[in-house]
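Thread title: Can someone regenerate the structure for this chain?

I was given the following input by a collaborator and told the matching structure tokens would be attached. They weren't. Posting the sequence so someone can regenerate them.
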Amino acid sequence: MRCVSLVGRWTLCALGALQLDAAVPRPNLVPLPQQVEALGRAVPWPAGSTVVCAEEDSPMIRAGLAELDRVVGKLGDAPPPRAKSVPASAPLALIVGTPAGSPLVARLLNEDRVRLDAEQPGPQGYVIRFLPNGKQTRVLLAGRDAQGAMYACVTFSQMLRREAAGIVIDAANVRDWPDLRHRMINRFASACVRRRAKTAKTIDDYVKAECDYVDFCMRYKINWISLRYGPRFGGTMYKAVHHIGPNDRAALKRISDYAARRGVFFEMTEHSAIDVGQDGPASKIEGLVSVRGARYSWSHDDLIRARGREIGEFARDTGVRMIYLHSPDVWQPGRYAGWPGRSAHCRARWRDEQRAEADVHVMKLFAEEIRKVKPDTMICSVLIPYGASVATTTDEKMKKEVLAYWHEVDRRLPPDFFICVRENRRENEAAFKKAYARHPVYFYIETCYHTGWTPFFTTSPRVMKTFDFDDPRDMLYVATGGDDWELTAVTAGHFAWNTDAPGACMHRGYNHDPVVDGREPPEVAGELLDAICIRFFGPKAGPLVAEAARSDLSWQFTKDPATAAKSARDRLAGRESDIPGWEATVIEGLDALAALMRYQAENSRRGLAALMKVQDMLETKEVVLDEWQLEHFRFVLSYVAAVRAVAAVRAPRVTAAETIKLKRYAEAEQFAQTGVARIPQSLRLIERTSEILGGPKNWPWESEATLRRMIEAERPQLDRLHALAQGIALEQVDAAANLENAVYLLRRGGVETGSSSDCALEFTDRIVRTPGHKTLVFADPKRRWAGRTVTFPPVNVRPYVSQGGYLRFYVNSTGTQGAQRNHLWCFFRTSETDTGPEKKGDWVRIHLRTARDRQDRNKRGFVTVDELAETWQLVSIPLKDITRDDADWLVSLHVNFPSIPDCGLVIADPYLIGNTELVEVKRPVR
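Best answer:
Regenerated them for you:
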């Protein structure tokens, strides 16, 4: 790690006749250079300014000059003319190049006693020097190599701004280099970028959208892009070699060639599997390790080689520079990557203790075949376990096993392979580096919870110094989330370039803290955020957009708070937090959800007010944004407006539910009334935002119709809460006349529990919905996916299926047994006397009612339950979704727990009934 030097000297040196009187602050440069000497003066960009470059045949230097032309043109002036030597008449001359390719650059560096070589500042390094020369000002933009010269142009372009009198330069001398030479972000880090690529009408439009993204990466000195996601190709780019045809491969080649000319290279993610298709050559081989539809082997060399050739041909056709080979993503002590379940063919070749040798064998075969087709391909091996925390675990047996494996792979695998490791604390990353001393390390870093708290903007990329070991071979890959935009990617690039930039810190052992990240520290959420947004949107709109970004918003949480809480709970299970209050804020059930939802509602209100000021300036032409800026502004506006519209209604709803739990009924009634009153306000906000976006179909990531449904869905919940606060439960029930034809499964005697069990099961009459019926209490599950089977005398379901009937039962809500998050399925036989194996029906998901039901509602087998205390809910599952055509007799129910509620699940009065309509009844609860 190197220390940043922000030279505090305000040098009022003579800059010739171009010197202005008005002092200006140090230019806001992103990423922050290692050494900056602010000269304290704004230098005008006069007519006749000339670029002097003897190396325009270099693609990277041409790209740097093109960026300079773009910025000057955007600021309202014509691009400067080019010359091979310095014209005496030019009032300002920009001298661009490298000491190896330009004698003039070499001479000026020597005269100014500036070192620029392979060691200092090293590859990609550059200097910017303001050199007064009588009445002429010379600005030297010199790179150690062509990429460094390009970056010098990029940084100098950030020094330009517009004043009333014309363009001025916020002059500074710079000496700069990257702390991490390989800096990668995931492609389509931004939802609006994904949308541009997905909606491109032609190949040329698609290539243009992607090349714009490459230019964005170049401007912020990001020099690798992962092809992990590609919406044009169906979302994920795993299995790409099977479904990306020649036209799209040619398009990707055009993009990668364009990127290479800007010092940006592509990595492609693939499986180290022998077969990833449904009907591939390995699909009929018995005993293979199968993970997520991919099949793995350590011994079928012919299929491994064939797969390697396919990947190599894809890399050749598309220009991909690196292949990221992911092993089976499964690891538990004694069950490394499916190793114990390997085929007899593999067992005959590899003994149990030879798994490291077997993994190396597979990787070497892949690399050999890939490089036969494309010799310069770099390979990253994702070998399980790639979590570095096992290096310092207190489980000595596990530690010994893992370290032995790491050292053996390091010894056997050729040293040009990158080895992947996930983000963790510095001491764990250091242990991993030490174990793989012969290899470069590929640091895979996620900046947020992808399944829960995916923030609009997060300051968590400030932890990049954790992974800087002063090893020029290492690569940093940053996954910046799913709902965010380029703002987080720029922040990641900023700290990957300069790991000690203000606000930097070490990784704390987990990914994202909603209490801190996004709002702190001020060096990132303040100064850096403002600087980036000004770069994006200009000096007037930028600070207002930054204010919205500082709101610490998460659409993922707003639409699905239960999943966000589950994600936090799972990630932090068994870990200590060094942030006081983290666990209490995030994990403690409904109280925390209500607090965070209120936090989202209030923050989005302030953020939306700032963005509406920008919209007013756009309408009055006080601010003018180009197409790229306008697209990103509208994305930001749509994101904040959606959070505000939904959270404004959900916050009083979840707060009302919380206060009912606390038996503060008067408060609950008031919150429910507030929520109902906000529904029309939220709908008007959605309508207004659609007008700004150009129509309801132009929401970049959620449709207007979806948002309206989410808001309207709060109304019945709020009505139920309002009644509940008054001591009345509104319940859906079958009319008594309909129940006369129902078949109650647990009334009929002979009920047994299955032999597969990881939870307690109680039959009770204490929890009764209808007199004489039995209730099942599944309690005290021992682990995730714990389950229990309940068997009863066979009942013929076919008459009820033909009527369009249902399996119905009551479930408790949050009450004494905890919220629901379970899977249920049925088992059948072909006849009442059949003694053969039972046949399993399709499973259904029983989850809390959240916004996710709008995604999964049309998928068979999704049932939502609410979270209202003191109530019961009738679950109604269409029999056609869970029965089988080849078996009519229902014999058992099975329940599993994808996550573990506090005490388990209660199923009261399960019964079969025809296609009957439910009615709403009022029941007193107090």
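The CA atoms of residues 594 and 654 lie 5 Å apart.
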